[in-house]
Design a protein that fits this description.
The complex is a heterodimer. Chain A is mostly helical. Chain A contains 15 helices and six strands. In chain A, helix 12 packs across helix 13. The N and C termini of chain A lie far apart (44 Å). Chain B has two domains: 162 residues, Rossmann fold (3-Layer(aba) Sandwich), CATH 3.40.50.300; 74 residues, no CATH class. The chains are: A mainly alpha, B alpha/beta. Chains A and B meet through helix 8, helix 9, helix 10, helix 11 and helix 15 of A and helix 2, helix 3, helix 4, helix 5 and helix 6 of B.
Chain lengths: 352, 252
């Protein structure tokens, strides 16, 4: 059953990408949206919506990182840091930790604001860096942030993290143990993120990002303020991640530093590479595919193996499996599953 | 309009430009010529803000610009093209031109995020201006083609359109005729004259003497980072120092 959700969503995005007619495209996305909204009316399986909400959180992360890496061309290997900042914002302000119990909805905004502020703070020192150098520095930030949360034991609970987070409530009704409300929150946030991402792409700012990605020096000569434009990319990208972090923390009712390690950043970058960097439908598909593999296929493979009397934990091999997928993509379709026109031509030219 | 006062640029031991003073009159077409390594491109890079002068000052409309960041110099009205074309390769021709308009757009972050009516109006007008500029340089048919896929001569013209999009008062052209055939060079000369007609001052570096002699009001000759001559095309053609340093006997 869970497969049906993923496969239908992926199929709709792939088909929509190929439709030349804008209105048909929109109708298709609208239909998918309505179907997803109505799904909980027919399917009351909490576990399903748990996985779907997780998938949605990663779609949000992929959309956010796509702004930084895909649009502006700034390779950020420490993106999980902003996810952590979002999650800890909720954990510290809606839990017994400081006996603060701020509402979930307010914290969504606050976390997005904090994450963007940190996006600017971490982005500012890297403005002169490009490519490999930028990747190394952002990787460092990605390591430092969870480390700080781990070592500020007094405030963050150290390695154990913070537990017993508040259940969010909606007009006085608590979300409770059900995962369905989170699923709806995630859907709404994805809709918002898509709206922003498309608008940004087709705007002055999106064009400026493309220009600095293509040739930063020339962009500066055309009067583009590259400092402001890059910081905007870091801030906006981070804000999506902050939102995702709040929902993630609230749903799990727990945060700890090990949830935001380097592998999370790598996973999100992999989603972009797999799906098609810079292309919004592409990165959504990339996120869905990897979450499907990670959260559905691998656990199921374990069950099947166990029933056959084998004791293998495929979960331990997930990096091997991503690796294999990425190597395959690089060999056979380096532009990703669903690339933008630009990226396709770029790699086509590079090969030629 | 543009004034350099005893400007020098050293790279370690190498003196690329040595105490050069120069002024460019508003509304003129001026050329800088000189053998390879004479410091022409270094000069352009200092005026447009890639390099800071090691000594001396650069003034544009009486403002001292050599301490400004590059994008501010561009916004103040100095646009340029590059010797080895630096277009945004995988952006449509029209998007290249639109990127050039950036410093004249007012859309803020929120306008970009929400596509406010103000942003829509502004984009529409900007697109109209971009189309007009593409027509002006003779590229109206290829607005949606990636810059990378345009023929060489068209790429040069697109670079000029992109530079014009920033509404410069002074346009710096760095070897605009490089790699062009005679017919394209003729069209380029017409284009440069038409740009001046728009009230834009042009300063160009060029190796093609035919083009330089045809379009320039004034020519400055550099050699080893120093100015060795300055005058009208007729004066330069007959200047013995220039002939010795650069032109040789072929033109004389």
């Amino acid at each position: 059953m869970i497969y049906a959700y993923f496969l239908i969503a992926i199929a709709v995005v792939v088909v929509a990408q190929r439709l030349p007619d804008k209105r048909a495209k929109r109708a298709l996305f609208l239909a998918l949206g309505i179907a997803l909204l109505c799904a909980p009316l027919f399917d009351r399986n909490d576990a399903t919506f748990n996985v779907l909400a997780d998938a949605g959180i990663f779609v949000l992360l992929a959309l956010g990182l796509n702004i930084v890496v895909g649009f502006a061309g700034l390779l950020d290997l420490g993106y999980a840091a902003f996810f952590a900042i979002g999650a800890y914002t909720y954990a510290m302000m809606a839990s017994p930790q400081f006996n603060l119990h701020l509402p979930f909805w307010l914290l969504l905004f606050l976390a997005a604001a904090f994450a963007s502020a940190f996006g600017i703070i971490l982005g500012a020192p890297t403005l002169r860096l490009r490519g490999d150098y930028l990747a190394i520095v952002t990787l460092g930030f990605g390591e430092i942030v969870p480390q700080i949360f781990q070592n500020l034991t007094k405030y963050t609970g150290g390695p154990n993290g913070i537990g017993a987070l508040d259940f969010p409530s909606f007009f006085g009704r608590s979300f409770g143990q059900s995962t369905i409300p989170y699923y709806y929150v995630v859907l709404a946030l994805i809709a918002l993120a898509l709206f922003f991402a498309y608008n940004l792409r087709d705007s002055r700012l999106g064009r400026a990002w493309m220009a600095i990605r293509e040739d930063e020096l020339a962009a500066r000569h055309m009067g583009i303020n590259t400092t402001a434009v890059k910081l905007a990319a870091f801030a906006l990208g981070a804000s999506f991640s902050g939102l995702a972090g709040v929902v993630f923390a609230a749903k799990l009712s727990l945060v700890s530093p090990d949830l935001f390690q380097f592998q999370v950043s790598v996973l999100i970058v992999s989603m972009l590479v797999l799906g098609g960097m810079g292309n919004i439908p592409g990165v959504v598909v990339g996120a869905l595919v990897l979450v499907l593999v990670n959260n559905v296929v691998l656990p199921q493979a374990n069950t099947i193996a166990a029933s056959a009397g084998l004791h293998v934990d495929f979960g331990n091999y997930h990096f091997f499996i991503y690796g294999a997928i990425l190597v395959g993509i690089m060999l056979f379709r380096p532009e990703g599953l669903l690339p933008s026109r630009q990226r396709k031509e770029e790699l086509h030219h590079a090969a030629a | 309009m543009l004034r350099l006062e005893r400007v020098s640029k050293r790279f370690g031991e190498l003196i690329a430009v040595n105490e050069l003073s120069l002024s460019v009159a508003a509304g003129s077409i001026s050329a800088i010529i000189g053998p390879n390594g004479a410091g022409k491109s270094t000069l352009f890079n200092m005026v447009s803000g890639i390099y800071r002068p090691s000594a001396g000052e650069i003034f544009f409309e009486d403002a001292r610009i050599d301490v400004w960041p590059t994008h501010r110099i561009a916004a103040a009205g100095i646009a340029r093209t590059f010797q080895n074309i630096r277009l945004f390769s995988f952006m449509a021709a029209i998007d290249n031109v639109l990127a050039g308009e950036d410093s004249h757009l007012h859309a803020r972050l929120w306008d970009s995020l929400l596509h406010t009516p103000r942003q829509r109006r502004e984009e529409k007008a900007a697109r109209e201006r971009a189309r007009e500029l593409l027509r002006f340089v003779g590229l109206e048919g290829v607005a949606e083609t990636y810059a990378r896929n345009l023929p060489y001569g068209s790429q040069r013209r697109l670079e000029i359109a992109r530079a014009l999009a920033s509404r410069p008062k002074l346009l710096l052209l760095d070897e605009p005729a490089a790699g062009m055939n005679p017919r394209e060079k003729g069209e380029l000369a017409d284009l440069v004259a038409a740009i001046r007609e728009r009230g834009i001052t042009v300063l160009l570096i060029e190796h093609d003497m035919g083009l330089v002699m045809r379009v320039s009001d004034e020519i400055t000759v550099l050699d080893y980072g120093e100015r060795i001559a300055r005058g009208t095309p007729a004066e330069i053609r007959n200047d013995p120092r220039v002939i010795a340093a650069y032109l040789g006997t072929a033109v004389a």
